[in-house]
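To assess whether ligand presence alters the predicted conformation, the chain was also submitted together with iron/sulfur cluster. Input:
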Amino acid sequence: MGYLDGFKVTFNRLFDERVTGDYPNQKRPKPERFHGRHVLNRYEDGMEKCIGCELCAGVCPAKCIYVRGADNRPDEPVSPGERFGYVYEINYLRCIHCDLCVEACPTEAITETKMFEFSFANRLDAIYTKDELLVDDDGRPKKQPWELWHEGDDLNTSGWMRATASAGRAAQEGRAEWSGELGYGVRAPEVGQSAALEASEAAESGTTGEEHD
Ligand code: SF4
Ligand code: SF4
């Protein structure tokens, strides 16, 4: 009797709407702050944002970032300021995509894309070098042969606010928090919090959010 009950459950589910898709040919849209593999960003003039400070390496709980800084040559600087990231490596056999490196970075140099599907043939491919992480001349990630990119995965890889950015507060909305970006310029600031705050105030006072607009 018990296993017949099981068949009944299965049969009843046959006509439910399917929740699975044709993966990997189709992928679900990803949230804006999705944590995929990293990029190293550049300013609009092409200079690198990384100043080799090693804060990302220090904060990384998985100890998977290795950075070495070097002095910029005055006649041929790589980044604005005194130092730049001379060596930069991330080991994706260790990375847990927690985003703490992004939070720690003082120059918005390191951010994460929405691409997370890798298929490494050897351990060295899993350790991304600075050349592989650095965005190209259009500000887009350099796609590696072992990565599965889908349309849109390489968009907005760098302009999204950190979770703890001050612009996350409604009172500080409307001010761009992210410096100019190669290929993107200065991003528009977020606006979601004010709308939510207004809606909640409207609900408390018995009016609707639309009446505020
Ligand atoms: S996302 Fe987290 S685990 Fe990965 S490199 Fe950054 S700090 Fe380390
Ligand atoms: S990515 Fe950011 S935190 Fe890491 S070394 Fe470069 S500037 Fe410093």
